[in-house]
Amino acid sequence: MNTTAAPATKVRKIRLLQSMPFFLLHVVAIVGVFLVPFAWKWVGLCVGIYYLRMFAITGGYHRYFSHRTYKTSRAFQFFMAALAQSSAQKGALWWAANHRHHHKYSDQEEDIHSPLHTGFWWSHAGWILSKDNEATHWDLIGDFKKYPELVWLNKYPHVPAFALAIGLFLAGGASALMWGFFMSTVLLWHGTFTINSLSHVYGTRRYTTTDTSRNNFWLALLTLGEGWHNNHHCYQSSTNQGFFWYEIDITYYVLKGLSAVGIVWDLRKPPLELLEAKRIAKGDRPGVKDAMPLTPSDTRKKTGPAPVPEREPLTAQA
Ligand SMILES: [Zn+2]
Ligand SMILES: [Zn+2]
């Protein structure tokens, strides 16, 4: 019998039937690659398409639609949304609105994917499969609602993914489909999900933030720069998430290249004074071995009452 008074916790459930395609795609990817003729070029295709779409997720879904860290044309924003949606991670506007919600409530009770409050697997994938998070938070993404083409894409989120799968099959047959779409998509899902789960658990913290975000070199390689997550939570409006030359941030390098030819512009950088002000003193900096606290109350024990969140406006322009 439980004698300790536990706080009422929200019951979190995934929709099993509606989540079947998610689980089935894992099975098809893992079994499928053994059923088709093997060649290293298919592995190369898998990795190439993984990183191409990862760029669209980090450069599009995240740094453009969620945080508006740079500007671009209406045509290119549509292209980025469609390319990112070929990852089968729902609509660009759904994604960006949920992500704005994450920053608004990072690691507080309301955060829809906080490893601290909801557990690791929920923060990794469970929240996406839940009925609670199916709807698009239109109130959080009003700035993009005026583009009917984006609203259409958001309404039919799987069109780009189907188009990619069909295109790969027509171009390269079953091997291209299995490696280039199924395996690549499943890996891309988990690569992206690490930012909501592992990036709030493993790594180092350089800046004071009101959440558990961390910087992690390996996750930055896997996600083209998203692993500098503590940097990002410190200053969300910056296009670059690697703040120093040694913090590899491929998405930023590609965006810099695109800005050199005029496809994107007004890339934003973090103000140095703000970064210095938020820097955690060296001796107090938790390291890789500093695992996250197990429960929110452990955090309170360590740090005292949660500080009043200090957040910059999501859509602030320089
Ligand atoms: Zn963000
Ligand atoms: Zn985060």
Quick take:
The protein is mostly helical and 318 residues long. The chain contains 13 helices and 2 strands, in the order H-H-E-H-H-H-H-H-H-H-H-H-E-H-H.
- Number of domains as seen in the coordinates: 1
Give the C-alpha Rg.
20 Å
What value does the average pLDDT take? 86
Bound molecules: zinc ion
Task: Report helical residue fraction.
Answer: 40-55%
Distance between the termini: 57 Å
Outline, from the CA principal axes? globular
Q: Report the portion of residues in β strands.
A: under 5%
Which features would summarize this protein structure in a list?
318 residues; mainly alpha; two-stranded antiparallel ribbon; 2 strands; globular; disordered C terminus; binds zinc ion
Description of the structure:
The protein is mainly α. It has one domain. The protein has helices spanning 20-35, 40-66, 74-85, 92-104, 115-118, 120-124, 148-155, 159-193, 217-222, 229-234, 250-260, 272-278, 296-303, and strands spanning 71-72, 264-265. The longest helix is centred in the middle third of the chain and has 35 residues, at 159-193. It is globular and about 55 Å long. The relative contact order is 0.13. It binds zinc ion (2 copies). The site of one zinc ion has 6 residues, from helix 10.
Any chance you could write out the topology, listing elements then pairs?
Blueprint: H1 20-35, H2 40-66, E1 71-72, H3 74-85, H4 92-104, H5 115-118, H6 120-124, H7 148-155, H8 159-193, H9 217-222, H10 229-234, H11 250-260, E2 264-265, H12 272-278, H13 296-303
Antiparallel strand pairs: 1-2
Bound molecules: zinc ion (2 copies).
Residues 102, 106, 200, 213, 229, 233 line the site of one zinc ion (ZN).
